[in-house]
Every structure is written in C-alpha cells, then in structure tokens.
Design goal:
Helix 20 crosses helix 22 and helix 28 packs across helix 30. Helix content is 69%, strand content 5%. The chain contains 30 helices and 4 strands. With 576 residues, it is mostly helical. The strands form 2 sheets. Strands 1-2 form a two-stranded antiparallel sheet. The chain has a two-stranded antiparallel ribbon with strand order 3-4.
C-alpha cells in the first residue's frame, strides 16, 4: 500500500499532514463511481491502477476487461480475459461467458458459440447460466450457428455414454441386468468409494432376484452415507419386497420429508413412495415437481395422475391424464386410464392400482407371457401354437426386458418362423440399438443366411448376415470382450499367434451358447482368461501346467478347472 502526504496550511501558520492511503480497493471504488457516471476513460484509468497494485488478482483484470468491452475495444478485453484463464485462475468460468459476449459483438458467432458452450459445460447452474442459454438460442436461431453446438452435443453424448457404462446405468436402462451385475461387481472392487456403482449394483441384484445381496448393499451405502437418496429409495423398495410392515414406516420416513431439487432424484423419491404404497406422499412430491418444471414431461404427468388415481382422487387423475392425452405418442395410454377412471366413478367401491411407470397398458396383459418365459421349458414354444403366438405378440408389444427374453426364446426355437420374426424385428425403426444387437446375435446363433435390413440413426441398409463378424456378441457385455483382448495379448506375448484364431473360435462358441441361457454368467475375468488359455493350449498340444497359470493370474487352480470344463463342454456340444 502506498501512502501519499498532502500539506494543508492552517490559519496560525502551522501545517497539518493528511495521509491518503491508495490501494486496489480505493481505485476499485473510484472506478465503480466513474462507471456509474458513464465516464469510461476515468474508469479505465482507475481499474488499470487496481491491476498495478494487485497484479495477481484475477478479479481486477475482469473488471478492466469489462471497461474495455464497454468502450468497444473487444480485442483488448479478450486479451485480459484469456490472461486470467491461462495464467491466473482457469476456474473463473465467468470469463468464458464474457468472451462469448465479446466475440458475439465482434460478429464472430462461431467463436462466441464455442465460448458460451464452454461456460455452460463448466458451470451449468452458474450466475450467468440463464443468460448463456438465451445467448446460445439467439446464436443458433438468428445467426445460423450450430456447428460448435453439434460438436458439443456429440462430445456430450460420448461422455454420457462413457459415464453410463462406467456406473452401470447403460446396462440397467437397457435391461441387461446380468451384465450389470458382472460389470458393477468389478467396478466397486476397483473403486470402493463409487457410490453410484453401489446403488446401481443394488438395483441389478434386485432385478436378478438376489434380494439379500441387494439389501446388504443398500445398508452398506447408508452406513457410510446415511443421507444417500438413491440408497434410501433402494432400501425402502426392498423392505416392501420382503413384506416387513413394521419397518416400512421407518424406511419411508426420510423420503416423506425430503424434496430434492434435482429432477431425476425427485422423480425417484416420488416413484419410490408410490411403489411402497405411500400414494398421498407420492402425489405431493409429483405436484411440487410439476410446479417447478415447465413444461412437464409425459412421465411426470402420468406419475402424478397415477398417484392421484391410487389415492381415489379421480378429478386430479382425470385432469392430468387429459393433459397427457394431448401428447400424440401417449394418447392411447391416457385414453385407457381415463376409461378406467370413468368406470371407477360408477362403482364407489372400486380401487385402482396404477403403475407409476409410463408403459402401454398392454404390459398388464404381458404378465402371463413373462411368467411363461420364466417358467416354461423354451422347447415348448416349438410345439404349442398358442404359446408361439404369445411369443410374437410379446416381441411386438413388450417392454425391454420382455423383448430380450423373447429374442433368446426365438434363438432356442430356431426354426423358419422364429428367424423371420427376428429379421422383421431388426428392421424396425422404433427399437433401441441394444435390442437390435440382441436380435442380430440371435440370427447369428441360429445360423441365418442371406441379407437383413437394418435401420439405424444414419439410415437404412441391407447387410449380409454371414459378413457380420461373429465377435459382434462382444458388444453385449464389456467383460466378454475384456476376456478375449487379454487372452489375445497373452498369446502374442508368448509367441503363440497361431493359436489366436482357435482361441477366439472357442470363446465365441461358448458365448453364443451362453446367449441362450438367461441366468448363466461369467465371474471374475482373470479366471476366464486363464481357463481359455489353458483349454486352448491343451487342445493344440502346447505343454501347460494349470498350477503355473493359476499363479500367473492369481486365481485358484480349481477355478481354472471348472472354467475350462465349461468351455470344453460348450466346444463339444455347440458350434457357430
């Protein structure tokens, strides 16, 4: 801090010394006053002084950059803002927004678009988020932008997909529950603090019928994070599943008291309350969320109507299903439930139990098909035309999990009709890529020949089934691919490249056989790599000691024996 002295004469001939303390704060206040008077030149001088006094304070540079911007010297402003981001504080995300403003004023709209997207990426809920979204909208609509936005969206999709795979959401959302279990067990072994993976593994255990494991996992998370909403929801559903009525109120209590501001969390809380039977609390949660969400999404509208109907609040249920009926894609769902409400109004004793999931009403009829897929020997589908009809109906109208089971069943049936149904299915434009991949693998499994029409995001094309690489099955589960990649690397390292095709044929044979068995799964990848190497070497006359492989891969020799026996059995009984 500098101190300047000014002398002032007094009437008696003596003088007083007045000390004036000049620092960055002093010049900042002066700069603000000059800005209020719109005296930009003096404001510029004042803010330059703040930089001189505090050359390492990024805020001073931002203020000075703001004055340059007001004066129309956008290049000077940009230079200061880049200096802040590159040399002083890369976390000052607002500089990205200021740069976007400057470049927009300079007419460099593509660059402005890039900076506004950087800001939204770095601070989506920041101080200028609303202004940034409005600026992006103007850049796209009025200045013909979009190139940076398209690139940003593509990168975001890739990152979302990577994260969805890492925490298991990809498998859960696509009904690949067995794959989710395998994948997430390995994730939490490597990342014991990954609570998203723990919660998703809890759901995967639940969906695969491993309810005790699911409950133990939920309790484990809550022991470490008592307020973890996902774990609280998972545990409440499990308590309901086990029928522990005395414990249900305690499990529901924290969910009845909380209202997360994050949309997805609030939806999960509301849906969980509905599933465990606290319909009035679910209705309150959904109605609060509706007030905060504009426009309300169809799934939220239906959930609100379902909660109201489950509370026998017919007028509210009707109002929301009438709102849903205005959505073309969901008009049939809304009309179905409006009809059920109309029937319930006529009979005062009627109690509706409506699912909180926004599914077509035909899912209720599919319950019979689902049970048959679980309990009936799949060979029966070949002999019973009524069961066969139900199978095809499930393929057309079922939810993701039902369709996946039907595809496996058709691979077992493996006759001309089954093949035709699968060919038609892969050509449908309204199915997701995971189900399309399951159907392609099923066609490969039954030995289908000729071309098939595939519909993808980039258009429609004819593909020869024979030319589709058999290792397309690896895309169903990253663990399956991992086993093969590690096996191939080992064979190359040991200069046994000649055995790579044989090892791959054996692994694919086993996977295509396993594809038909919905409950069969592989465990620790190290065991399968060792087992695949062992059976390959033994079959092709390369000396191998099981104990040495066990030591190299840090697994039990007995595990390698069991694994190699399963691979050998598959080799003897199956083929692709």
């Amino acid at each position: 801090m500098d101190t300047h002295h000014f002398r002032k004469s007094s009437g008696n001939g003596s003088s007083n010394v007045i000390a004036m303390n000049f620092d960055a704060a002093y010049f900042f206040e002066r700069g603000v006053r000059f800005l209020q008077r719109n005296d930009l030149n003096k404001a510029l001088k004042a803010f330059r002084k703040t930089v001189e006094y505090e050359p390492n304070n990024p805020v001073n540079y931002c203020n000075l950059a703001g004055v340059y911007s007001e004066m129309g010297d956008f290049e000077a402003s940009n230079e200061l803002l880049e200096h802040v981001l590159c040399d002083l504080d890369p976390n000052m995300t607002e500089c990205q927004f200021y740069l976007a403003n400057n470049y927009a004023n300079m007419g460099e709209y593509d660059t402005a678009e890039e900076y506004v997207l950087r800001y939204l990426d770095a601070d989506p809920n920041g101080e200028y988020a609303d202004d940034a979204e409005e600026m992006l909208s103007v850049l796209l609509d009025e200045f013909g932008g979009g190139r940076a936005f398209e690139k940003w969206q593509e990168e975001k999709r890739k990152l979302d997909a990577q994260q969805a795979t890492k925490d298991g959401r990809y498998f859960l959302e696509n009904g690949q529950f067995e794959a989710a279990v395998e994948w997430l067990e390995s994730v939490i072994e490597e990342e014991p603090e990954n609570y998203a993976a723990y919660n998703n593994l809890c759901l995967a255990y639940y969906y695969t019928g491993q309810h005790d494991k699911a409950l133990s996992l939920a309790d484990d998370v809550l022991h470490r994070q008592p307020d973890n909403i996902h774990a609280l929801c998972n545990r409440a559903i499990l308590v309901k599943h086990f029928g522990w009525r005395d414990a249900l109120d305690a499990a529901a209590e924290p969910l009845r008291k909380v209202f997360p501001l994050h949309y997805d969390l609030a939806m999960k809380v509301g849906t969980t309350l509905g599933i465990i039977g606290y319909h009035a609390d679910a209705l309150e949660t959904f109605r609060r969320l509706i007030r905060l969400t504009t426009p309300a999404e169809p799934v939220l509208i239906h959930a609100t109507a379902a909660a109201a109907a489950n509370c026998r609040n017919w007028s509210v249920a009707e109002r929301f299903w009438q709102m849903l009926a205005r959505e073309t894609d969901y008009q049939a769902v809304a009309d179905h439930y409006l009809q059920r409400v109309a029937e319930a109004r006529k009979d005062d004793t009627t109690t509706l139990r409506v699912s909180y999931q926004l599914d077509l009403p035909v899912e209720e009829q599919l319950a019979v098909v689902k049970d048959k897929l679980k309990d009936t020997k799949l060979e029966a589908w070949r002999r019973d035309p009524l069961l066969r009809a139900s199978l095809y109906w499930g393929l057309r109208h079922g939810n993701h999990e039902t369709r996946r089971r039907v595809i496996r069943a058709l691979a077992v049936v493996a006759d001309e009709d089954a093949e035709k149904a699968l060919r038609l299915f892969v050509g449908r434009p309204d199915i997701d890529e995971t189900l399309r991949l399951h159907a392609v693998v099923a066609l490969k499994r039954i030995g289908a020949r000729g071309s098939v029409r595939l519909v993808a995001a980039d258009g429609e094309r004819e593909v020869s089934i024979e030319q589709i690489d058999p290792d397309v099955i690896f895309d169903l589960n990253p663990s399956w691919r991992d086993v093969w990649v590690r096996t191939e690397e080992w064979l190359h390292k040991e200069h046994l490249q000649r055995l790579v095709p044989e090892a791959k044929r054996l692994w694919l044979t086993y996977l295509y056989d396993m594809f038909l068995h919905v409950h069969r799964r592989i465990g620790k990848a190290d065991i399968w790599v060792a087992g695949l190497i062992y059976i390959t070497l033994r079959y092709f006359g390369v000396p191998v000691v099981q104990r040495e492989l066990a030591e190299e891969f840090v697994v039990a020799a007995s595990s390698i024996r069991k694994c190699s026996a399963r691979l050998e059995q598959s080799l003897l009984t199956s083929g692709i």
